[in-house]
Every structure is written in C-alpha cells, then in structure tokens.
Amino acid sequence: MSERELFIADVGVERFNNDHKRLLFYVIEFERLAKRFQERAPFEDEWDQVDSLFPRLDKYTHEHFEAEEALMRQHGYVHLEEHIGLHQQLIRHLRQLEHDVAERRSEAVILLESFLLDWLQTHINQDDRKYKGCFEWAETREITEKALFNEMISVQHLHRAIELGRPGLVILDLRTPVEQAEGIIAGSELFACDHNLLDRQDTEPFRQSFGARFDPEAFDPEALHVLICRSGPRAAIALEAFQEHELKACELIGGIQEWVRQGYALLEMG
Fold first, then answer.
1. Which residue blocks in the chain are alpha helix, DSSP H?
2. Average pLDDT score over residue span 171-186
3. What is the pTM of this model?
C-alpha cells in the first residue's frame, strides 16, 4: 500500500484535509505492522509501536471531531446529529480495540489496521465528503486555521529526511549511556537519561531523570526535534514535555529497534 494507492476526498476545509492525511500516515504504518504480525508472533517492542498509536488517536479524535462538530453547529449543518453519532461509534470501536491490544491479542493489530482503513475510506471519503461546500472560510477561520501536528515519524521518513539534509532537524537520543554506546543514528544529539523503562508500568524514574535535565530554553523553537529511545515509550513521555512548552517535536515510531529491524545502520560510538 502507498499514498498513491489510497484516495482521500477533498472535504472543502484545508485543516480537515490535512488532518485526514495524518490518518493516512497511521494507516500506512499499521498496514506494515499488521502484515508482520500475520507472519510471526510480535516482539514486545513492536507492541510498543501499537500502544503509542492510541494517545495520538485520542488527541486526533478529540480535536478533529470537536472542530468538525463546532463548524457544523455554527452553520446549522443538516446532518449534524447523524455525524456526531458516527463520531461516537468510531470512538467506541477505538476503545474496544485499545482494550484488545492491552490484552496483547495479535489479531487486534490486524483489526486496528482494517478499522483505520475503513475510517479513511468510509467515514472520510463518504460521510465527511457530504459537508463539502457547506462552510464559508471567512466565517470559520478561527476553527479551521490550526491543523493538527503530526507527532510521529516513521523510520523511512526519518531516513529520507536525513538523506536530504532537512534543515532544522534535530535527532535527540534519550537512551541511557549504556544503550547509546551500542550505536546511535548518525547525527544524533545525545540526551542521555538514567532509566531504560523496561518496566512499562513504572514510568516515574524516567520522568524524573528526563525532567531533571530538560530545559525548554535550551531548545530551538524553530527546529523539529525527533525524539528517540529504544522502542518508543520514553520518547512518548518526553514528547509531552516538548508539547507543553510549544516546542516542535515528534517521536520515532518503534525507536532504535525498528530502525535496525528495517536494515538501517547505527554509528558505533568511539
């Protein structure tokens, strides 16, 4: 599957079109994972990749659905109640999938990928398309001008950005010094923390270690910071701090483990 093989309807509101492209990014990433999970049992770090999606989708559904519904109310959209009902159905389905993933049911990842694809092809391309032309930009600027920022970057996209020498890109490695000594992504800045978060239920030691070092004034507000750890959970925690201080940042999906798994090299530390 590729972006060229998927059609995303133009719904007539640029902010919503951009949000929908973000959902396409999730579809493509989880099509890859679903295929892998069909071929073999998942590794624990791959579950981290799936877990990381839900906070992003929670924010997506909250901000995107809220903006859509506000715009519909403002214009007296005739299908408002029906559309709210569809949003609620999507959220309920998402919560069930989140529960199944928490139970580590491999089939839930395949179902999640199918759910995201159906969301794209049915809800966006059919239900959302109905409101095209119903809203006037001049009256809706306050609602529509702020697009959701993509908080995740795939291994392929990061590798391509490095190849192209993307200006303003800062790769921040949050792993422990021991982990970093095993190899880093070339060009990374080392922001070593003291805890590896092997116990996924006990995040406080890492939060404290990261918080003790994190100084928002030390980071360029114009740069894009790619946060990297072993497989994702630490980067997700750090991302919260960057967002709180309105710094541009995203987490690398799957972290160093996924980078290596997809065949990309690490730079050996001296």
1. 14-39, 44-74, 80-102, 106-118, 137-144, 155-163, 177-181, 204-213, 233-244, 255-261
2. 94
3. 0.73
